[in-house]
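Technical note accompanying the year-one report. For the benefit of new consortium partners, we illustrate the data format agreed upon in the data management plan: each record pairs a sequence with a C-alpha cell string. No post-processing was applied to the example shown here.
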Amino acid sequence: MIKTTRFFSFLTAISLAASLFLPQAVQADAKRPTDKLNTNDEIIVKFEPNTSQSKRKSLLNAHSSELVSQNQQIGFDVVKVEGQSIEEAIADYNAMPNVEYAEKKVIYRASWSPNDPLYASNQQYGANLIQADDAWDINKGSKDVIVAVIDTGVQSDHPDLSGQLINGYDFISNDSNPYDEEGHGTHVAGTVAAKTNNGLGVAGIAPNVKIMPVRVLNEEGYGTNEEVANGIIYAADHGANIINLSLGDSEDSQVMQDAVNYAHNKGSLVIAAAGNDGKPNPHFPAYYSNVIAVGGVDRYDNPYNNTNYGSWVDVAAPGVQVMSTTLGGGYGRLTGTSMATPHVAGVAALLASQGLSRDQIRQAIEETAEPVSGTGRLWTHGRVNAFKALGGSTADTGDTYEPNNRKEQAYGPLQSSKTYQSQISNASDIDWFKFETKASGEIKLNLSSLPADYDLYLLDSSGKQLASSRKGSKSDESITFTTTSPGNYFVKVEGYNGAYNTSQSYTLQANYPASSQAESTWFYEPLTFETSHPYTNNYNKSHTYTKEGVSKVALHFSRLETEANYDFVHIKDKDGKVVKSYDGNLDAFWIIVDGDTAISNLVSDHSVNGYGYKIDQVAYHATSSLSDMSTTDFSIPIQQ
C-alpha cells in the first residue's frame, strides 16, 4: 500500500531526521507548520534497487520533477514536484515499473502535555519507581554503549550533561552541531544519562553511557519522515546500540519503516513513544514490530490518561510530571510518552553494558516488567523494572515483593480480596504496598499470621497517615476506613521496635471498591481492515469483526469510495443479513450492527473501480466486566 509523507512530533514527541537535505518546517495540530517544513511540493520516491542513476534522471525529467536529495543506505529520493498536485505525482510514480513506492512527506511534531502546578514536588520519582537505584548496584552502564537521542538536539553544555555526549548530527541545519533550540531532546537525554552522584539536579538511568544527539526536529518541535528516517540511519551507521524516538505520528510511512528495519538489521534496538492521543489507534514508528513501543504511567503506576494503548504497546514507564534537564542549565517537569521512552532506553543501555544483544535486551525488559494496572489491556507486558531486568532478585528470601522499603517502591496495585504473603526480614525492613479505589466505599485491611509484633498503616496518595492498627504482640491487625471518592492509597507494614522474622511470612489482604458498578458502554479495540486500493474489477471480499457475547458491535469507516450505483459495500450481521449498503464517496462514519458480529463486504462489477474502504476503528457495546479494553465513553452516531 502506498503511503504519503507526513509530519512527526515528539511525545512529548519528536520529528524525523532524514537524508542530508534541509527540509522546511511545518506546524502541527490546529495550525500545520507548512511555512517551515517543505511538504507542499516534495514527495519521497524509492526506486527499485537495480534502477540506474541515468534511468532515474530520465524518469524525473519526463515528469518535470527535480531531485532534491538522495539517501544511499535505504535508497530513497526526495523529489520536488512541478505542474501537478502531490496526490497526482504520487499516483504517477507508483504506476511506474521502476518505482517500489512513492509517498508524501509526513510531519512529526513535539506534543507534550502542559505542566500541572499541583505537582509541586521536586522529587525525580521515575528512577525510584523502576528501581534504578537498586540496578546501579549491579551496573551503572559502560562508556562504550551509545544511546542515540533522535529529537530536537541536546544542550551539550548543560552542567548535568557536559561530558556525556559524543558527536552527532543536525539534519535540520545540515551540520555537525545538533544543539537543542527547543528543549525536548535535552529533557529526554537527561533521563537517559544525566550525571549521577555529582551533587547536581537529576540522575540518569544509565549515567555511564554516552548520548549521541541527532537533531531531526526544529525549534518548534517539528520535522518530517525524511529527517527522522535519515536520523535513524545515521545513528545505526555510527554505532548506536539503542535508538530513542520520543516522537511519532498516527500516519504510517514506508520510508520510516524501512529506516527502522535498517537500524534493526544493523543491531540497534529501537525504542519509541506510543503517543499521547489516549486512543488504541496505531502510532508510528512505535507500532512497527521491530520497535519497543512505550506507554506511560504516573508515580503511582496508574496509566497516564493520554497514553495510547493496545496490544501493540509493549511496556510502560514513568511519563507523568517527569523531572529532567532543561535548556539553560535548569531542570523541569514534562509529561507524555516521550518522557516514558527514555526510561526504557536507559534500562536498555544498562543491559547493553552487560553485553546483551538487541534481542536479549528486549526479552529481558519485557519478561521482567511489573504487572501494574493496565497490563494486558493497555500494554502487553508491564511497567519496566531496571533492577529485575538486570537480574536483580530476592528469590532467596520469603520477602517476595522487595525492594519495597520506600513509598516510591511500593508494590502493587494490590488486588481487592487477594491475599499476599511476605516477610519483615530485618530490623530496618519496611514493606510498602499500594492500591487504587475506583469508587467511594469501605476499605478494609487485614494483617494476619504474624510471626512477630508487626504494625499496619493506611496512608493517602501523598503519604499522610489515615489510620493505623498497633495491637502489640502477635495479634492480627486490621483497619476499616471509609473513602468518599476514588483515589490512590498506600499500605505500610513494619515491625514494632525493630521486630522481624527471617523464616516466617505474614499475610496481608485489602478489600476495597475495585470498580464502579458495571454498566453497559462502548469500548474501542485497535483493529484495522481495508480493501485493496484501488480494488479490482469483479471484486468480492469481506472483513469480519466478532466480539463474542456482546450486544452490539460497530465499524468506523475513515474512507469509503466506490463507483456510485454499481459497486457496493454491504454491511451484514452474524447471520449474513444485509443491514445497510453503501456506494459512492462518503465522509467518515460509524455503522452499528446488533449482535456480536459485523461483516463488511465489497462487491464490484467488471468496469470502473475506485479506492474501496478503510475501517480504522472498531468497537463493541458491553458491561465493563466483559471488556478487555479500557472504557472510552464515546457516543457512536449511526450513519443514515
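Partners are asked to follow this layout when depositing records. The CA atoms of residues 127 and 166 lie 24 Å apart.
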